[in-house]
Specification:
Elements lengths: L5 H4 L21 E10 L2 E6 L5 E6 L11 H4 L5 E10 L4 E5 L5 H26 L9 H12 L2 H8 L4 H6 L4 H14 L5 E10 L5 H14 L7 E8 L2 E8 L2 H21 L3 E6 L1
Parallel strand pairs: 3-5
Antiparallel strand pairs: 1-2, 1-4, 2-3, 4-5, 6-8, 6-9, 7-8
Helix pairs in contact: 3-7, 4-5, 5-7, 8-9
Amino acid sequence: MSKKSRLEDDLFDPEKDVESTVEGFPKRNELVVANVEEVMGHGCYVSLTEFNKRKAYVHISELSRTWVKNIRVHVREGQRIVAKVLRVDPYKGQIDLSIKRVPEQMKKLKILEAKRGQTAKTLFKMVTEKMSKEDMVQVAEVRDILITHHELLYYALEFASTATQKELVDMGIPEKWAKTIRKVASDNIVPATVEIKGTAEIVIPSGNGLLYLKEALIKGRDNVEEKNTTIKIYTKGSPRYSIEVESEDYKLAEKALENALGRIEDTVEKHHGTFSFKRA
């Protein structure tokens, strides 16, 4: 006899879903990385990479925005996926996920984040292996300092790869730790860059429209305040203009893009023009 779908005989009651964080479980609406373990006619079971391989379930209706005729066209055993958490019941140990509700761009970001998390874990272990037993009493404190200053351990180690020892000490990291972290990070991390692209359409119906257009694009390109971030703008044929943002991480790139679009739009509207933007 074939197994029944969990959603067929044990549908969660939304009013009983736990919103708060429970140790060892993801939160509802969180994005998670998982490995497909078992594919059946009604869905698939996966293991959550970031939660000690805890099992979760994706119903067939949450696999794709299109009709699923053959489930194995969409998922297969051993596949790595990114999914959104729909429901969590830590008391029953059950987690329901959706693949179709995750935008493609977010899938790429989450996979990159997971890879960076594993890299950071490996590198920090390399650091601790070089420290003496006496220094190891500070390991939790050092880790907390790095994460507090840079949100993610990987970003902290990426910063350390180009920082001076004094900059790390000024963060509150003990000198021995700072020296070792800097050495391990600089030997193993090449600072990455990310790129976001899109196309703007701008029309300024005025005798000085070309002049005002140039003003808007220059403001968008040149007034960048985000660290280690550059913006390129070039024509794709009036009224379409390509905007490319390059930065050291996605958060900075997104912020720089948002600010650049704001500067351009303000200038265009000031001169009674129209503006729209579509991401690539």
